[in-house]
Amino acid sequence: MASMATSTLTSSLVSSNPKTSSFNGSAFSSRIKSIPQQHTSSTISMSLTTPPYDLNSFKFQPIKESIVSREMTRRYMTDMITYADTDVVVVGAGSAGLSCAYELSKNPNISVAIIEQSVSPGGGAWLGGQLFSAMVVRKPAHLFLDELEIEYDEQEDYVVIKHAALFTSTIMSKLLARPNVKLFNAVAVEDLIVKGGRVGGVVTNWALVSMNHDTQSCMDPNVMEAKVVVSSCGHDGPFGATGVKRLRSIGMIESVPGMKALDMNAAEDAIVNLTREVVPGMIVTGMEVAEIDGSPRMGPTFGAMMISGQKAAHLALKALGKNNAIDGTCELGIETPNLVLASAETKEIVDA
Ligand code: 48N
């Protein structure tokens, strides 16, 4: 009964009729954007279908333990052999990295490896600000959410996803289902492959090994070659901004000034406009852009991560000589995002 009472309370707060509901006194938005009825979680959870088996006499088919081991080992080793030389490596599976990999995965001829040091990919996108649930996305980035069929509460200039995990779990479920994508989580990129002044791949190790190099004798890494590397290492956490910091320590860039103080409006435009190939073979996206350019931080708004990730994908497609939305060479609406991606780099935003 409690859950019913809660859902009644919740629905009165977010009722689609502004005249009958208000929140902190201001009338609520005119409508809640929802996806076709057959997809909504409330339909699924409210349906009274019973499981297709008898829960009172449930029995699994038999299995040999070694078969489980062989199934996991064969697949993982096959994936490592397959992705040892790949088109694009995306370092970091936060909102920017996931958006980039999702956009790239639309082209079935592109192979994408996502390297994420955490066991649980998603970076900072499992929650909004200060560990609150809701995720704010400023328009027109909500059009990306429409493409992902993610429900949100719509306001005039922004939308609110009721729980950030709805974005992260939805984009990940769609992305990981695609045949040309492989996520290597619990794996860290601890260095770059650089040949002739061009980034040509990444140096990897189990993340727990990367974090414990000082506790053992030498534990050498593995490698993964790539035509293009997209660095989306964020700015926070034990591995924050490790992509651009490595570029600095090997002298490929001069400085990593770090993000400036918070200014939502300046920050989100700057992140998207400054998303670019910072050295030959390496594109930077998401909050790492703020780290390398010293642009302001935006705090708990996530649209820039999504669009920066999409832009990084099209910059990677351009670098691969494929149709892309930067050159305007891909069919509108099929391969491109339903937004016109700003292609001009506008350094003056940062200097303003
Ligand atoms: O979510 P993050 O940290 O980074 P982004 O850029 O995708 O999104 C940033 C966003 O969540 C914000 O910070 C918001 C908008 N706040 C801004 C503000 O003003 O505070 O994801 C980065 C991911 C994480 O999952 C890391 O674990 C991972 O990258 N990672 C790595 N994985 C493998 N190897 C590495 N060397 C590595 N470095 C980071």
What is the topology?
Layout (H helix, E strand, L loop, with lengths): L1 H12 L8 E2 L2 E2 L4 E2 L7 H6 L18 H18 L2 E7 L3 H11 L6 E5 L18 E4 L3 H7 L3 E3 L3 E4 L2 H13 L4 E5 L1 E9 L2 E9 H4 L11 E10 L10 H8 L10 E3 L1 H11 L1 E4 L2 E3 L2 H7 L2 E2 L5 H17 L27 H5 L1
Parallel strand pairs: 4-5, 4-12, 5-9, 12-15, 13-16
Antiparallel strand pairs: 1-2, 3-7, 6-8, 7-8, 10-11, 11-12, 14-15
Helix pairs in contact: 4-6, 4-11, 9-10, 9-11
Structure characterization notes:
Belongs to the THI4 family. Residues 1-27 are annotated as: Disordered. Residues 17-27 have a biased composition (Polar residues). α4 (95-105) packs parallel to α6 (164-176), α4 (95-105) crosses α11 (303-319) and α9 runs parallel beside α11 (303-319). The protein is of the alpha/beta class. It has helices spanning 2-13, 41-46, 65-82, 95-105, 142-148, 164-176, 207-210, 242-249, 264-274, 287-293, 303-319, 347-351; strands at residues 22-23, 26-27, 32-33, 85-91, 112-116, 135-138, 152-154, 158-161, 181-185, 187-195, 198-206, 222-231, 260-262, 276-279, 282-284, 296-297. Strands 4, 5, 9, 10, 11, 12, 14 and 15 form an 8-stranded mixed β-sheet that branches. The model is unreliable at 1-7, 18-30, 35-43 and 342-352 (pLDDT under 50). The chain has 12 helices and 16 strands. It has a domain at 86-320: FAD/NAD(P)-binding domain (3-Layer(bba) Sandwich). The site of ligand 48N has 31 residues, from α4, β5 and β10.
